[in-house]
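About this split. The held-out portion is used to measure sequence recovery: a designer receives only the structure tokens and must propose an amino acid at every position. Recovery is the fraction of positions where the proposal matches the reference. Here is one held-out target exactly as it appears in the evaluation file.
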């Protein structure tokens, strides 16, 4: 199960875990983290994608405490291949 969204509320994250378990599929939650300036540059550079994120949306999200994080944090500040490598290692998958 792959879900791509912010899921700031702990209840949202718990619900996703329940859905995976109910479906009988393994679940590993990843919390992708990057410094604010990196996130802002990415949001500002988006053109024609499906995201509804704006700099204002990002600022509101950054002001919210996500509560306890049980999902594994991954460093999303670098290029995608590095993030993918982190996820593969966390899932114990060969490159």
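Reference sequence for scoring:
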């Amino acid at each position: 199960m792959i879900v791509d969204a912010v899921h700031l509320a702990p209840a949202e994250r718990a619900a996703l875990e329940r859905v995976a378990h109910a479906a009988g599929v393994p679940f590993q939650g990843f919390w992708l983290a990057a410094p604010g300036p990196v996130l802002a540059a990415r949001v500002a550079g988006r053109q024609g994608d499906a995201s509804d994120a704006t700099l204002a949306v990002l600022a509101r999200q950054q002001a919210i405490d996500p509560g306890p994080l049980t999902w594994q944090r991954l460093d999303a500040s670098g290029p995608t291949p590095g993030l993918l490598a982190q996820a593969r290692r966390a899932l114990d998958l060969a490159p």
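Annotator remark: The longest strand covers residues 30-33.
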